[in-house]
UniProtKB/TrEMBL annotation:
Protein source organism: Acetobacter malorum
InterPro entries the UniProt entry points to: Lipid/polyisoprenoid-bd_YceI, TTHA0802/YceI-like_sf
Annotated SMART domains: YceI (SM00867)
Gene3D superfamilies: Lipid/polyisoprenoid-binding, YceI-like (2.40.128.110)
Protein name per Swiss-Prot or TrEMBL: Polyisoprenoid-binding protein
Every Lipid/polyisoprenoid-binding YceI-like domain range: 21-142
Domain of life: Bacteria
Length: 142
């Protein structure tokens, strides 16, 4: 077995982001997830065309607010048959419920580039509490 020695990990500092109202860039934003299937394999999926906003308080991130809308018909997975099953009436029923929404109730910073965002997820006409683990990638003006 080879062993690396003298290797120093590099940690990039995330630049400070100006507080204010940010709108989700629906062309570049994706919601990605993974789900275990019977503890044997994993399915990976993605929603695109996401819309929403972030009201960022950079001095007090816990005062920030997020609202997202996911077009459920944009769902794709690593299996075409799984995608079709999820679109159908027994699961997401995208014809009757075309969107899912998430509205934050609390933001907890987990460091300079990560946070947990608790909120209310509305899916299939039902609203329940949920928490998202988010990772800050960057910001800029389009």
């Amino acid at each position: 077995m080879a062993r690396a020695s003298g290797v120093t990990p590099v940690v990039a500092e995330v630049p400070a982001v100006e507080g204010g109202l940010y709108h989700v860039d629906d062309l570049r934003t994706q919601v990605v997830f993974s789900v275990s299937c019977l503890s044997v394999s994993w399915y990976h999926g993605m929603f695109s065309g996401v819309s929403g906003s972030l009201q960022l308080d950079s001095a007090h991130p816990e005062q920030s607010h997020v609202a997202l809308q996911l077009p459920l018909h944009s769902l794709t997975t690593t299996s075409g048959s799984v995608t079709q099953t999820l679109w159908d009436e027994g699961w997401l029923d995208v014809r009757k419920y075309p969107d899912a929404t998430f509205v934050s109730t609390q933001v907890v910073s987990d460091g300079p580039s990560q946070a947990r965002v608790a909120g209310r997820l509305t899916l299939h006409g039902v609203t329940r509490p949920g928490t998202l683990r988010v990772h800050f990638v960057g910001a800029g003006k389009n």
